[in-house]
Write a structure and sequence with these properties.
- The protein is mainly β.
- The longest helix has 13 residues.
- The radius of gyration is 32 Å and the shape is flat.
- 5% of the residues lie in helices and 37% in strands.
- It has a five-stranded mixed beta sheet, with no helix packed on it. Strands 26, 27, 30, 32 and 34 form a five-stranded mixed beta sheet that branches.
- It folds into four domains: 129 residues, Immunoglobulin-like (Sandwich), CATH 2.60.40.10; 89 residues, Immunoglobulins (Immunoglobulin-like), CATH 2.60.40.10; 114 residues, Immunoglobulins (Immunoglobulin-like), CATH 2.60.40; 155 residues, Immunoglobulin-like (Sandwich), CATH 2.60.40.10.
């Protein structure tokens, strides 16, 4: 029997588009030869050196920096693996060069079906900066686990290349392989249509002639089976993890789930749920207007069923866009609403659920924490789920709104700025006008100390002979912190167009609208605000009055008095 810790030799090839590392230096002194130049002769005979000019002799020799050189070896824990097993191995890096190898990271190649599926976190310190630093002759070892990507193949391969902190390759391309043995799996069961919505299989609910599909979790293998007259089905396929459901078949909704198929898998009962048909309605509401990062939030979720049958197995799917300030809806505080469980809403019933979660750090930079979810059967017929959303303020951060107006090339570089454009920053709050700026000769403008959270729009009032090419006003998203802001680009073109009507602040707002004038030539384009000198510091007079004075007075504890808007389905 082969040894469990079989050390396999790497197959090396220079990576495409990557430089090969310099060969390791030898201990012997190099033979003196003439320096290589573009005009060097192709003859193998060494050219006769000529005496350098006095100018050339005075130039100090510039030594070429030695590149990092790291050798890669890999030992699989077993001589071979089954299709349903984790492929485990130890990767070892050794600095074989004479210089420090700093910031070493690993790029795994995953393009061929045989390439092993290693999760991003599976590469530990090697996955991203700052990486691993090795002194000459120093080694680094890491235990790694991955999944077979194609259960029909007989080999699994780990391929990749190392890079150092400069982005240069620190190794040649490496490739290590291990045999994979197919383990036969068998899945049988009954598929039924839950006509009365109670979540249980009853006589007469079996579905004949219905096509079911199993999709391999870690690759692209798919397998299908069709049920017989009694609703029975059977799959013969390699053992492993598979996705089942997520499909609407013959009008039935099959909730998405993961199943593990082995040689002796228990009989499966596959439920098709009736369509929602608009019977499910949802709303969500935070119990407070504002929070701080790390604080526990309570959200009241209300679900109602106006249909004639129970809705069984309803779950919440939240934050589909993946933004950090939106709650995930997957923690223990969401109870039976998490996708692996499900709740039942009886016919004509309305139920409320108190769910809890924690305010993420990203909510501070966005200015609010949001709960944005859809409710229905897990990952099927999503477009007909019941949507609900709410948000609460997370005050205290500041942001910069900076932009340029003019003509841009295909790379987004400004080719001609438009001076004299009045730019008005408007929020959706009670005092909407946050501030005004006028672009300089480069078309540049900037608002400082803007409070993230509200919805903002920029209104543009260009001088005669110019118009904004696209939407005017234009909505923008404002995020903190100030040092992470991006430059907004707005295209303008010659011509005239009707100017938008800019909102006006109500009389009870705490500051008068700033007076906007064109910035001086060569200036920042920040504009001027009245005579108080605020523009020179970047502080926006109206922004402070409407949104930020309270924050300064309370030490950053701004609480917005306006109740947030709810968008319940």
């Amino acid at each position: 029997m082969l040894a469990a810790a079989a050390l396999l030799t790497g197959v090396f090839a220079a990576p495409a588009g990557a430089e090969e590392p310099d060969p390791a230096p030898t201990s012997t002194a190099p033979t003196s030869t003439a320096p290589s130049t573009p005009e060097a002769p192709s003859s193998s005979t060494e050219p006769t050196p000529t005496a350098p000019s006095s100018t050339e002799a005075s130039k100090p020799a510039v030594a070429k920096a030695e590149r990092a050189q790291v050798a890669v070896s890999l030992a699989f824990d077993k001589a071979s693996y089954g299709t349903d097993e984790d492929v485990t191995f130890t990767v070892k890096l050794t600095n074989v060069g004479g210089t420090r190898a700093a910031g070493i990271t690993l790029w795994q190649m995953i393009s061929d079906p045989t390439d092993l599926d290693v999760p991003y976190d599976g590469w530990g310190k090697l996955r991203d900066n700052p990486g691993v630093t090795l002194e000459p002759e120093e080694t680094f070892e890491l235990k790694v686990s991955g999944k077979v990507r194609d259960v029909e193949k007989k080999t699994a391969v780990v391929r990749g290349v190392l890079f150092d902190e400069s982005g240069a390759s620190a190794s040649r391309e490496f490739s290590f392989s291990v045999p994979v043995t197919r383990v036969d799996g068998r899945a049988v069961g009954t598929v039924y249509g839950d006509k009365n919505g109670n979540g249980s299989f009853e006589a007469g609910e079996q579905l004949a002639g219905l096509k079911l599909t199993l999709r391999y979790v870690h690759g692209s293998n798919t397998y299908t089976a069709t049920s017989g007259p009694d609703g029975k089905f059977g799959f013969d396929l390699p053992a492993g993890e598979y996705y089942l459901g997520g499909d609407v078949v013959d009008g039935w909704l099959f909730p998405f789930r993961t199943v593990r198929i082995g040689p002796d898998t228990e009989d499966m009962l596959v439920r098709g749920a009736p369509p929602l048909n608009g019977a499910l309605k949802a709303s969500m509401a935070f119990t407070q207007d504002s929070y701080q990062v790390g604080e526990l939030v309570h959200i009241t979720v209300t679900l109602s069923n106006s249909g004639p049958i129970p809705l069984t197995g309803i779950v919440a799917s939240c934050n589909r866009i993946g933004d950090g300030y939106i709650l995930q809806g997957t923690g223990p505080g969401w109870g039976d609403l998490v996708w692996s469980r499900g709740v039942t809403i009886a016919a004509g019933e309305t139920r409320t659920f108190d769910v809890t979660d924690t305010v993420p750090e990203a909510a501070f930079h966005r200015g609010f924490v949001a709960a944005s979810c859809d409710f229905g059967y897990p990952e099927v017929d999503i477009e007909n789920h019941a949507d609900a959303r709410d948000q609460a303020w997370v005050p205290g951060d500041k942001a910069i709104v900076e932009g340029a107006i003019g003509a841009f090339d295909n790379q987004g570089q400004l080719t001609k700025g438009v001076a004299g454009v009045k730019v008005v920053l408007v929020s959706d709050q009670h005092c909407p006008v946050v501030g005004e700026r006028t672009t300089d000769e480069k078309g540049h403008f900037e608002f400082l100390d803007v409070a993230p959270g509200p919805e903002y729009q920029l209104y543009f009032l260009p001088p005669k002979g110019w118009k904004i090419k696209y939407e005017n006003p234009t909505g923008i998203s404002v995020y903190g912190p100030p040092e992470n802001h991006s430059l907004w680009r707005f295209e303008a073109e010659e011509g005239d167009a009707p100017l938008p009507t800019v909102p006006v602040n109500p009389a009870d707002c705490s500051a008068a609208p700033p007076t906007s004038t064109t910035g001086a030539a060569g200036g920042s384009g920040g504009g001027q605000s009245g005579g108080g000198g605020l523009a020179s510091t970047g502080v926006d007079a109206l922004g402070l009055g409407a949104l930020a004075l309270a924050a300064l007075a309370l030490g950053g504890g701004l609480v917005f008095s306006a109740r947030r808007r709810r968008n319940a389905a």
